[in-house]
Amino acid sequence: QVQLVESGGGLVQAGGSLRLSCAASGSIFSINAMGWYRQAPGMQRELVAGWVLGGSTSYADSVKGRFTISRDTAKNMVYLQMNSLKPEDTAVYYCKAEVSGGLTIDYWGQGTQVTVSS
Fold first, then answer.
1. 23-45 residue pLDDT tens
2. Which of 11, 33, 60, 92 is paired with 85 by a 20 to 30 Å CA distance?
């Protein structure tokens, strides 16, 4: 079992920045990938940024050059630095951890709201 708690969301003006944090606890040694997803009203949840064991990262085209995912293994934290925010970035942002041990299981946080005003 892995528990994830996000924080750092809020209201920001277009062009501003926010840093989201995700605190992982539990069987963190079994995590082989983590990611940030977002879901806007009426839309499907989409991958924003991902990290896999070994350090490779990936980003949605819409956030490349603006968002950065990073992981602090000593603190069991994953961060999403979001710069040059746009109104279309408004969504609930979720942290996900993927655990593989025979079966692959995804764990999700409760989400944090990000609202970007124009």
1. 999 887 888 999 999 999 999 99
2. 33
